[in-house]
Amino acid sequence: MASTPFLAGAFEVTTIEMHTGGEPLRIVTSGYPKLKGRRLLDKRRDALANHDTFRRLLMHEPRGHAEMYGAVLVEPDDPEADLAVLFLHGEGYSTMCGHAIMALGRWAVDSGLVEVKEPETEVAIQTPCGLVRARVAVESGEAGRKSGAVSFRSVPAFVFARELVVDTVEWGPLQVDIAYGGAFYAILAADNIGLDLYNCPARLLADAGEAITRAAAMQVRLSHPDDQDLAFLYGTIFTDGRDAYDDEAPTRNACVFAGRQVDRSPTGSGVSARLALQWTRGEIGLGQARRFESLTGARFTGTAVEETRAGPYRAVTVEVSGQAHYHGEARFTLEPEDPLAEGFLLD
Fold it and tell me: What whole-number distance in Å separates Cα of residue 235 and Cα of residue 127?
């Protein structure tokens, strides 16, 4: 049975539907409740504690699906931000999402949320992990003004631990690196567990990523210098093992997060984390652009642009570039007597 906000039958949510490299983004434009809290992380806690029904309704079936991803616009508390956002997925609330930043950057320009300038418009987006600065390509033509590719610089990316051994039921001891790019990831080459990123069903990667994330989360105690709300293992990134700098051929990422969700994009925060790892190992230098490819063939370009710090950690500021696309808009309602009103997911 639906919970109290829906019993009156007044529920209506409108959204803009976008994707980046095939990874969906449902931008909630109206109908979401006002969240309490001074800081964005406080609003995130309020959403989880008091309004999680909205997440399930919008992310789960029949309105969503197991791989759905969403963004809710909220009032920023950072005076430099043009907008603030909470990220939603089938399991909860993430702290950073690069593919969503690319989509939100375009949408902010196209909706008139920011003053548009050519050839680039800057959009400052406050996320739970911090302020992200995006640049949206804009040009005018016969068909009017059009937004395009988006680049963003996120919070400092750093390596939390290298060559950690995690005990797993399926593969025994596994060596992983843990790096942060707005969220924490366990990173390892797929062939370490006998998988080939160029010839492997996504369901096998989903199973393996979920198992490794769960094992690592139980055995590794994470910390973050800014806030302990950021100190959780978000997912596992499988790579093709091609970590040394190569300005020609892309290297492949497959990110498994929020349980068994497989990112269709190369994962913006994952690219940031992986570049921090490559830079720490000495495999890539500052200013060397690297291309990253997802399972769909979508590509992001990532560059470690400058050295910085994140508390006690050596870190880099990473710039990631890619392209998001529109594919629709929606108006969601429900009938109070609907027994599946709040959504469901099948295993």
Answer: 18
Q: For residue range 61-100, what is the model confidence (pLDDT) as tens digits?
A: 999 999 999 999 999 999 999 999 999 999 999 999 999 9
Catalytic residue numbers? 97
pLDDT tens-digit readout, 182-193: 999 999 999 999
Sign of CA dihedral 270, 271, 272, 274: positive
* Alpha helix positions (H), the chain: 4-7, 40-50, 52-59, 98-110, 202-219, 268-281
Residues 6+ apart with CB under 8 A from 112: none
Stretch 205-221: mean pLDDT: 98
Q: Domain 157-322 maps to which CATH number in 3.40.50.360, 3.10.310.10, 3.30.2350.10, 3.30.450.20?
A: 3.10.310.10
* Residue ranges covered by each domain of the chain: 4-152+326-332, 157-322
Strands (E), 128-279: 130-141, 144-153, 157-168, 172-180, 184-189, 233-239, 251-257, 261-262
What tokens were used for 301? 């370009």
Is the fold of 4-152+326-332 the same as that of 157-322? yes
Among left, alpha and beta (phi > 0; psi -120 to 50; other), residue 172 is: left
Task: Report how far residue 149's alpha carbon sits from residue 21's, in angstroms, rounded to the nearest whole number.
Answer: 12
Q: Which amino acid is at 35?
A: L
Indicate whether 1 pLDDT > 50: no
| Sign of the alpha-carbon torsion through 340, 341, 342, 345 | positive
pLDDT at 2: 40
CATH class of 4-152+326-332: alpha beta
